[in-house]
Amino acid sequence: MTELNAPQPPADIPAALPRFEDFGLAAPVLQSLAEQGYAHPTPIQAKAIPVVLQGRDVMGAAQTGTGKTASFSLPIIQRLIAHANTSASPARHPVRALVLTPTRELADQVADNVKAYSRHTPLRSTVVFGGVDMAPQTAALRSGVEILIATPGRLLDHVQQKVLNLSQTQIFVMDEADRMLDMGFLPDLQRIINLLPKKRQNLMFSATFSPEIKKLAASFLTNPVLVEVARSNATADRVSQVIYKVDEEAKRDAVVHLLRERELKQVLVFSNTKIGASRLSRELERHGIRAAAIHGDKTQNERMAALEAFKNGSIDVLVATDVAARGLDIAELPCVINYDLPYNAEDYVHRIGRTGRAGASGDAWSLYSDKDARLLADIEKLIKQKLVPALIEGFSGRVSRQTDRGDRFERAERHERHERSQHRGERAQPPRKEKVDPWFLKPYEPSLPAEPKAEPVPSNAKTSQPVRRAALLGGVRKS
Description:
By secondary structure, the protein is an alpha/beta fold.
């Protein structure tokens, strides 16, 4: 494996910031970047783009939020421009680049970026993921696309339906590969790799590289270049990390207190369980805080609607499981709260990486109770940093509900209980007393068994021979 580490200039000489024009990107790509206000690449982009343009295999390691998506999507578009055409024939638009992501949200985000960067080129792109109808995806695939972004399961569904052919794929990208292994996608990944041509360019990008990921990379990467701009599993320097010591039963009230006292908007709160996320979202709503929850039990449409409401400010707090730890890109997200410390220490890096993106600063607050000692130790070991628990200023363990929205929820619940307890009349009627039959108050007296009566036997009955009966079909055969 080749390591790519550009020499650093002396401290007293300012380094000249590279520009996207320096990479030799085509005019349509540069036009798209200029329209989005991008002039200078991030460190991971500056190191990765030239290597990908050379056709080399790459392992890209960078903190979440540093621009990994553009690190592979821009050079892919540049390399495929030579094949771009305006033909209506699907045969002229085979899948030439495949990007795999672990989650639907990340796939959708990558697809949006690819469309934005290639908007002034004839290249076609689409995204396929589970949880939604396959018909529109099938129609897009049959019309032909050069760049396909997909989650592993839905990709194999389309392969099984024989609407997808990967025999002409030239570039294969595995984004957030460590998360794919955590989610149990290894068998699907092996099947997909076997469908691809043996001669191709392979790119693997992730915020963390575990030994398992390096083993997987060795199985399909050829002499890869390691592009690393930060220490593996490091957290962003611009993210302020604070951990608060609270009792387990007081965590919900602690979140409410933090949100109220700091007057925060657009806060992402992480819960380890789907039930916990839903309960916390309802509790925030009862306290007058606009909140919604996303997790695996939500339909894709519900999840996308919640994300859109969060982005446009319709809701202030999004409570999510780790399904949103990857792929959620909110501009200037100010704060992330870990309601639960994650079971997997690497998820902590991805969670707090949702804030402090693209050079901005952010806050990452975590709630910690006595039962979380092992989880906290694992996180500190991974990030090589000591997190000293602190107390929440002004928090006594309980918070009062606001008098507007929270009281409306409480009044609605009381009204519903009151309605169930009333009859149809204007006023509630007292419960009626049922009449009691005195017979049920008598002591139990067993009755004497009655003597069996002998049934009379007909005088003409012949007991020595059985009575012959007609059969169901055809009667009794005479001998």
